[in-house]
Amino acid sequence: MYLQYKEKCMTAEEAVSRAVQSGDWVDYGFGGGFPELLDRALASKKGELTDIKIRGGLVLQKRIEVVEQDPEQTTFHYYSWHIGDYERKLQSRGLCQFIPMILRQLPYLYRDHIRVDVAFVPVSKPDEQGYCGLGISNYAWRTIFEAARTVIFEINEQLPTLQGVNGSHRVHLSEADYIVEGEHSPLPIRTYKEPTEVDLKIAKLVAAEVPDGAVLSLGVGGVPFTIAKLLAESDVKDLGCHTGTISDAFLSLYQAGKLTNQRKEVDRGYATWNLAMGSQALYDWIQAEPQMFKPADVDYVHSPERMAQMSRFISINGGVQLDLMGQENAESAGSRQLSGTGGQLDFLEGAFRSPGGKGFICINSARTTKDGSLKSNIVPYIPGGSTVSAPRGLVQYVATEYGVVKLSGLSLQERAEATISIAHPMFREELTQYAKEHGLQ
């Protein structure tokens, strides 16, 4: 199989030397799929190249070598589409710049608005015909490498080898300019903390809203994970998966016999996703049961039009702040970027369009600051400098530990009343006073 592509196979150092030029934009991908060998090889070019700009996002690796080996940024500059835990630390050191985007728009950016010179694409071991899977990160890779000047496939022996229904997760060695192999670290895992009492209250309220046959899109936070565990223990049945990120939440539903995908009007019988992120058990499940899954490009998975074709589409995501008009901040603390918009807007809109669909924003009513004081997460208005991740017209349901309210179809005055009703009791009086003073009551 390799003989046909022998001339393309080389070390990571050789591939980087041939492919990357000063001034290039290099794409690393998104999520758990990470070009480990090529990253190290590119980092070794510090001082030989100039003005190399790297794009990635939601990185689960503990290190990005091009960043860590060049803290002065003499050669490399790192940009993120979505800040993950490690990238947040880089950001605090001034080593990561954030690029705002909405995930479903990403392919349009690459096609028409931004430049990509070199794509470092992590792929699974090929089959006898030379086809590889995109592992745990389909992302927008096909759009990206079709736009790139040079494409390098990094074969990672740790990645699941599934290629998707009708090749939805498949690439071929012939599509690469260069091919790199080598030994890789175990895949990065994502774990969840034990739910707090507040998390559990919110999860119970939302789980009660999920009907038989619902198609679920679950965010990657603790509350969506807890909701899945509650559903796994409930009487609900025949759930489906159409989600940006498949996680251990869906594995728990499958193990409980709840995840059948049999009532989906689109991709019936398959769990549809774009990224996989979780434990080794999750990755082992994907490897062992490839016939269950339809991993697909972000164009496909994040399409609100496609979600609208499915009944009872339920989107569940976390939030940081909600104001009295229903505007939501999911990603920043003032101007400090905490994460990214990601696909939240895509799935909120999909749920909004779905017959019987519901889009939930789950948010703790208040938080305790470092000095021990309590601050409300239901605020009069999203503070200056903070992000409005979801406009008021797309926020449908909001859940705190004090209840669930539906905002769609309500006037501004009715929205204020509804959001105050699920605020922490300590802050309801001052929120009500603000509403009166500003014509919202």
Describe the structure.
With 441 residues, this protein is an alpha/beta fold. The chain has 2 domains: 3-180, Glutaconate Coenzyme A-transferase (3-Layer(aba) Sandwich); 197-437, Acetyl-CoA hydrolase/transferase C-terminal domain (Glutaconate Coenzyme A-transferase, 3-Layer(aba) Sandwich). Helices cover 27% and strands 21% of the residues. It is built from 15 helices and 25 strands. It has helices spanning 12-19, 36-43, 65-68, 85-92, 106-113, 141-147, 197-207, 222-232, 248-255, 280-288, 298-301, 304-307, 344-353, 412-421, 428-437, and strands spanning 9-10, 25-27, 52-56, 76-80, 97-98, 118-123, 131-133, 150-155, 170-172, 178-180, 215-218, 240-246, 271-276, 293-295, 313-318, 321-323, 328-329, 332-333, 336-337, 358-362, 366-368, 374-376, 378-379, 397-400, 403-406. The strands form 6 sheets. The protein has an 8-stranded parallel beta sheet, with helices on both faces. β13, α10 and β14 (293-295) form a beta-alpha-beta unit. α7 packs across α8, α8 (222-232) packs parallel to α9 and α14 (412-421) packs antiparallel against α15 (428-437). The longest helix has 11 residues, at 197-207. The protein is globular, with a radius of gyration of 22 Å. The protein starts with 8 loop residues before the first strand and ends with a helix.
Task: Give the structure's gist in a few sentences.
It is built from 15 helices and 25 strands. It has about 450 residues and is an alpha/beta fold. The strands form six sheets. It has an eight-stranded parallel beta sheet with strand order 1-10-8-6-2-3-4-5, sandwiched between helices. Strands 14-13-12-11-15-20-24-25 form an eight-stranded mixed beta sheet, with helices on both faces.
